[in-house]
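Duplicate of #3305? Posting structure anyway:
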């Protein structure tokens, strides 16, 4: 006997995300590899320390990683928009921004 649709257990997926940081003073590079099981997506970003700033590698790591995560978010939104278009979904204006611009 099959169960009604509402009583099915939720589907669970696991995506693996690896974040690699490398530092070559004054630059920090972050590389993200996202494995969804069906696709592998990558994004990269950098941070550069000003010669006038104190040497604090954690700040470079945070900036580069944050920028790479934002780039990955944009990549995922573009992929979703392409997938929606391929399935015949109604026309959209494109991916939503990850945040609103300040006025």
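Output from current build:
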């Amino acid at each position: 006997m099959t169960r009604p649709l509402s009583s099915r257990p939720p589907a669970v997926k696991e995506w693996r995300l690896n974040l690699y940081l490398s530092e070559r003073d004054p630059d920090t590079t972050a590389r993200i590899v996202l494995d969804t099981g069906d696709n592998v997506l990558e994004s990269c970003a950098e941070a550069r320390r000003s010669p006038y700033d104190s040497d604090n590698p954690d700040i470079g790591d945070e900036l580069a990683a944050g920028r790479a995560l934002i780039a990955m978010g944009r990549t995922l939104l573009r992929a979703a928009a392409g997938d929606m278009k391929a399935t015949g979904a109604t026309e959209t204006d494109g991916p939503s921004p990850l945040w609103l611009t300040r006025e």
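Confirmed duplicate; merging threads. Strands lie at 16-24, 27-35, 40-48. The mean pLDDT is 86.
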